[in-house]
Design brief:
By secondary structure, the protein is of the alpha/beta class. The chain contains eight helices and seven strands, in the order E-H-E-H-H-H-E-H-E-H-E-E-H-E-H.
Length: about 210
């Protein structure tokens, strides 16, 4: 099962991707986490990406495509994968199509978590993250429930970066949905409500028996 989990920053992609990973035993490929790992390690890619992310902008396509190509070539992706945070532009989507063809596979479903912009802004501004496991928490949470690590705020979740992230999403990323609609593989999912409610909608779109629903 090859899935693309799609939605704006703050839509809950990471939470639902972790659920799908645990339920179906396929790797969760989160480009944001991959980039942050590069930044933390101080690699050349990380040094190039850090100021771009801090401004709420997108990392250049060639860097992102190279990262995805390397990741999908690993053995654990042979049985399927969940891509979270990519593609974000039409050129990235077209490059992913080519890569899928080269690997002899295809995307089974694009799961689009749809959330109003006003709610996205409220969710993003002030949310905190565990620097160890990358789980996100609402404001005023002191430490990670999983490992007790003190929480921090990402540079790209600070007020000055939140609105540009949403604006870039609206202008560049939403058209990617039309690219996949043409293939008939998009399921729109209401991203409002509790995590359990949203998870139920995601699983309904996938279908436990492998049949997919729009």
């Amino acid at each position: 099962m090859n899935l693309l989990l799609y939605g704006a920053p703050g839509s809950g992609k990471g939470t639902q991707a972790n659920m799908l990973r645990d339920r179906f035993g396929i790797p969760h490929i989160a480009t944001g986490d991959m980039l942050r790992a590069e930044i933390q390690a101080g690699t050349p890619l990380g040094l190039e990406a850090q100021p771009i992310l801090a401004r709420g902008q997108y990392v250049p396509d060639d860097i992102m495509i190279g990262m995805i190509r390397n990741r999908l070539g690993k053995p654990d992706c042979a049985g399927g994968f969940i891509i979270d945070g990519f593609p974000r532009t039409i050129p990235q989507a077209e490059a992913l199509d080519v890569l899928m063809h080269e690997l002899g596979c295809s995307l089974d479903r694009v799961l689009y978590l749809k959330v109003d912009v006003s709610e996205l802004l409220q969710r993003l501004s002030g949310r905190l993250v565990c620097p160890t496991c990358q789980r996100t928490y609402p404001p005023s949470t002191a430490a990670c429930a999983s490992d007790g690590t003190p929480l921090v705020q990402r540079d790209d979740d600070k007020a000055e970066a939140v609105r540009p992230r949403i604006e870039i999403y609206l202008s560049k990323t939403v058209p990617v949905l039309e690219h996949y609609r043409g293939a008939g593989i998009v399921s729109e999912i209401d991203g409002r409500g509790t995590i359990t409610e949203i998870t139920g909608r995601v699983l309904a779109a996938i279908g436990e028996n492998g049949r997919f629903h729009a």
